[in-house]
Design brief:
about 325 residues; TIM Barrel; 2 domains; about 15% strand; binds flavin mononucleotide
């Protein structure tokens, strides 16, 4: 393993890595250095309000540094949102050029901007000087054609971007196949800006492989792999799964991985129960949570199947308790 101190960043995952999830995560797991919040759509100045920015209001933060993310293609709206975020204390904002969803990309937002370097150029030209926050961007390789990013890079190189986060898949791939490390390498060679790697870091071995193949990269963003195995940052940095950690108050958390997942889960459920009204919205959130979190439980598959059918929170909680009592951690 390269003798470095990698910066590990929580990927933005809309609907999942909410402020409630992020706060609970940091209370229970170590090793993460930074978080990026799920995207907020840019809107005109008069529509910016605390509700829109709720997920990134500083009083809702986990304690780790957080970078808000914006999605949009209107330079004035972007700048106004960047000013509002700066007023909240943020020094950096991320521009999403990676969202693969068709309705978004059809409107030339998210990854829909990747095939249009001239438009990206014009937007960057209008936002870079006027934004009070540093700007980083998050990209994929292209919509369907991997060479789109390569054609965009000469444009990006002309601007003082703080970072380019690359998820080396095309938008049409969504999450199919594997992250294309050769395409990442090609982009890395010509980018003259700091680069963060993102994609398929699902275990320590994969992380080590990426880190040793690209020693010039010091920042790594983790999404689905970290949600499935929240010990992953600890494993990457310390080397052992489910290790004991000390909370800020100095109390030991349980060392057993299942006990730690159980405590984390209880924290996430109660956070949602405190803010959502009725069983259904909480159940919706928790079903998404287990989409990832059930991956490394020995009985995760039958548990997920059963809890997806739960209509009441009390039934859901009974199912989770029953399965967790028997579960083994398999990561
Ligand atoms: C449900 C879901 C929601 C996502 N939301 C966002 C988002 O708001 N902004 C963004 O830039 N990427 C978003 N992503 C992409 C992730 O941040 C990340 O780039 C992707 O999952 C690849 O990393 P991974 O292989 O570590 O998961 C989302 C992905 C998923 C699966």
């Amino acid at each position: 393993m390269a003798d470095t101190n990698p910066i590990l960043v929580l990927a933005p995952m809309r609907g999942i890595t909410t402020m409630h999830y992020r706060k609970a995560f940091v209370r229970h797991f170590k090793g993460l250095d930074l978080e990026m919040a799920p995207f907020i759509s840019t809107v005109s100045a008069e529509r910016i309000n605390p509700k829109l920015l709720k997920d990134v209001l500083p009083e809702n933060n986990s304690g780790l540094p957080l970078i808000p993310q914006l999605i949009g293609n209107n330079p004035d709206d972007f700048v106004q949102m960047a000013i509002a975020l700066h007023d909240l204390g943020y020094e950096e904002v991320n521009w999403n050029l990676g969202c693969p969803h068709k309705p978004i990309r059809k409107k030339r937002r998210g990854s829909g901007l990747l095939p249009h370097p001239e438009l990206v150029d014009s937007i960057l030209d209008q936002i870079c000087d006027r934004s009070p926050c540093r700007i980083s961007i998050k990209v994929r390789l292209g919509v369907s054609d991997k060479s789109e990013l390569l054609k965009l890079i000469p444009v990006l190189n002309r601007y003082p971007l703080s970072e380019v986060i690359i998820h080396p898949r095309t938008a049409e791939q969504m999450y199919d196949g594997t992250a294309d490390l050769n395409a990442f390498e090609e982009a890395l060679k010509i980018l003259q800006l700091p680069v963060c790697y993102n994609g398929d870091i699902n275990n320590r071995a994969f992380f080590q492989m990426v880190e040793s193949r690209f020693p010039e990269v010091g920042r790594f963003m983790l999404g689905r792999g970290l949600l499935a195995n929240p010990f992953l940052c600890e494993e990457i940095k310390v080397g052992t799964a489910g290790t004991a950690v000390r909370s800020g108050a100095g109390t030991h958390r349980p060392t057993n991985p299942i006990e730690r997942i159980t405590a984390f889960h209880a924290d996430v459920v109660s956070s949602y129960e405190a803010v959502l009204h009725g069983d259904h919205p909480v159940l919706g959130k928790m079903k998404e949570f287990w989409t990832y979190q059930a991956t490394h439980l020995s009985n995760g598959r039958p548990m997920f199947k059963k809890l997806k059918k739960a209509q009441r929170l009390s039934t859901y909680k009974a199912i989770v308790s029953e399965f967790l009592a028997d579960a083994e951690w398999t990561a």
